[in-house]
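RECORD TYPE: inverse folding
INPUT: structure tokens
STRUCTURE:
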């Protein structure tokens, strides 16, 4: 079968090969025919080594498709079922799951160390224990979440990561207060989803911050009240908040420099929400006096900061009701054979989300 493979960490292009085989099928597993997958910035971060990932590997973790085969012991799924791939399934028995913090379950991360594929040259891993830049993938049954028939595969794929992460940051982690002021730094697919979440919660002012003009224009369509470039943020802070700072600032880039900027533009007693996934050697510096004196809350948001399955259901309900726009997030579509074009679209900032059609 075909799959896009990165042979070594640091390479900037993927090779689409026809000699890849999905492996590991057995009890508790399912085989999925991937129909659509989104390109998330985390895929780029894995490719360049910001996020740890063994190589060679198949990137992709934001996918949807159909079940083609189920292993022994799998009773809630059957061939033909439409599913979204969940890269962070909850085991249900670990301390985090028992506390209701299923987004902190480590079971899914443990899957990343087991090869999902093989080639004549040896084992191939799947990013985040999945690897959806492929025609077929074998995953734990818990990674396959059924979706209603009226949800297209491309929309379902977005729900699998970016939309859930961005919406959840506003709805779950921050629990944005109606009438508040919000700034979103980084307006790709996740940032735009956070904007939609802040709008749903009734934020009075939503300032979108991004260096790419097309993304700023898109942010206004999705609910931002103002869109500025990074060097205009200080002026926006002055004009929108009288210089006090925003009630909520979302960092959706994953870099210490933008996190520091976000902290500086959060009002005293306000909330900084860290959504972007950064590198382990990139340190955010804060002094102990400002931490005490400013009393700003710093809230990391992992995969939307809430129960993943409930978040999926909520997103579908909001989409059906017309309260959020998911179709508009897909700005580009390419076949798997042109995956490197999708990577260029992501790097240049011209795409909010590119759908890879398989």
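DESIGNED SEQUENCE:
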């Amino acid at each position: 079968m075909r799959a896009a493979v990165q042979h070594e960490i640091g390479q900037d292009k993927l090779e689409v090969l026809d000699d890849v085989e999905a492996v590991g099928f057995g009890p508790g597993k399912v085989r999925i025919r991937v129909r659509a997958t989104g390109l998330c910035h985390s895929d780029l971060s894995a490719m360049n080594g910001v996020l740890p990932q063994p190589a060679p590997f198949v990137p992709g973790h934001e996918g949807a498709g159909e079940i083609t085969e189920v292993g022994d012991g799998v009773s809630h799924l059957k061939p033909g079922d439409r599913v979204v791939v969940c890269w962070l399934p909850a085991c249900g028995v670990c301390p985090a799951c028992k506390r209701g913090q299923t987004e902190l379950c480590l079971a899914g991360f443990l899957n990343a160390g087991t090869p999902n594929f093989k080639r004549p040259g040896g084992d191939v891993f799947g990013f985040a224990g999945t690897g959806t830049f492929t025609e077929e993938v074998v995953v734990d049954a818990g990674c396959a979440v059924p979706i209603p028939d009226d949800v297209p595969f491309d929309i379902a794929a977005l729900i699998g990561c970016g939309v859930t992460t961005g919406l959840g940051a506003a709805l779950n982690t921050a629990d944005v207060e109606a009438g508040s002021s919000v700034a979103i730094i980084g307006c790709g697919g996740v940032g735009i989803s956070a904007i939609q979440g802040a709008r749903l919660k009734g934020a009075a002012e939503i300032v979108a911050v991004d260096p790419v003009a097309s993304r700023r224009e898109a942010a206004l369509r999705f609910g931002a009240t103002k869109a500025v470039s990074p060097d205009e943020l200080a002026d926006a802070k002055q004009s929108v908040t009288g210089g006090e700072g925003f009630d909520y600032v979302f960092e959706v880039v994953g870099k210490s420099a933008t996190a520091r900027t976000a902290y500086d533009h959060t009002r005293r007693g306000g909330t900084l929400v860290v959504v972007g996934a950064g590198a382990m050697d990139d340190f955010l510096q804060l002094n102990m006096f400002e931490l005490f004196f400013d009393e700003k809350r710093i809230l990391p948001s992992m995969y939307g900061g809430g129960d993943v399955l409930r978040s999926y259901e909520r997103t579908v309900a909001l989409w059906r009701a017309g309260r959020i726009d998911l179709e508009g997030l897909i700005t580009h579509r390419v076949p798997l054979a042109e995956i490197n074009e999708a990577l260029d679209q992501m790097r240049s900032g011209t795409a909010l989300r590119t759908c890879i059609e398989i």
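NOTES: The first strand starts at residue 3 and ends at 5.
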